[in-house]
Amino acid sequence: MSKPNVLQGARARSTIFTPSLLSKSSRFISTEAPVVSRPSSQEAWKKFAITGATVGATVLGAELLLNRETREDGLSAAEQSYLHDSFKYTGGGLVLTALAARAMFKSGFAYRVMAANPWVVLGVSLVGGIGSMMGVMYTSPENTVQKHAFWLAFNGFQAATLSPLFFFSPAILSRAALYTCGVVGALSYVGATAKNDKFLYMGGPLLAGVTVVALSSLAPMALPLGIRGLAIAESLSLYGGLAVFGGFVLYDTQKILHHARLAEAGMVPRDPMREAISLELDMINIFIRLVQILAMQQNRKK
Q1: What is the pLDDT of residues 242-254, one digit of tens each?
Q2: What pLDDT, on a 0 to 100 scale, did the predictor assign at position 204?
Q3: Is 67 part of a structural domain of the chain?
Q4: Distance CA 199, CA 202 (A)
Q5: How far apart are CA 121 and CA 103, in angstroms?
Q6: Which of 149, 160, 270, 293 could form a disulfide with 263 if both were Cys (CB 3.0 to 4.6 A apart)?
Q7: What is the rounded CA–CA span in Å between residue 22 and residue 172?
Q8: Segments forming the whole domain that contains residue 178
């Protein structure tokens, strides 16, 4: 029902970097002019207010548009516990990935990645990321050491793939992280408070959508596209990807609650680490696309 193999693999493949990604980075060229001024306190508070309003509007809009029919009985204790444990592993994995990616960037690993053959980097990251992900999913929760080892390896491969993002300015990365938390938080709330299994039908359409997004990300690397073709492929990868992975957050949240009910009935093992992999991939893919969009907006202002 949840198609873990196909859906997770497609999502892992969609986290690749397109050639245009780092060209938008304000730190990609070493001759960047030094910053001579900082925004005033008034401008900083204005940006903070706009950011807060954007996140708040996202929460309100998601609630009004997607969650008109809510659960009347609320979440059971088993559902709450399973959902909380899944998000704990998600948060822990993201923190670990961010810290490891930062350390790799500081050590010069990101420079070596960018200088290497892109197809070799892509192949190694896909094999390592998907292989460790499958290890997490197919290792029994009772085998704690092996399962956590695969989980650490998965986050390590994600960190290696994401380390070049630190070429972007900290302002863009922090804003993208804040927006990602707002979007995922809003959609997770909608998924958790909606009627049981309301969004589980989305698995098939989301698989088709993520396939299109992954192919549009690979197209500039494999096909001789013109300027218009590149623009279309980039738009599909960015904005189509945001829509697809936003849908995945709804789908995965309700899938976690569905598995919580099955685990309570003894039909499946309780495995929050496996559920966390799905949410982590959703957040990483949303974050990457928001970084690209914010970088494009910054470049237009120059």
Answers
A1: 888 988 999 999 9
A2: 66
A3: no
A4: 6
A5: 19
A6: 270
A7: 13
A8: 75-301
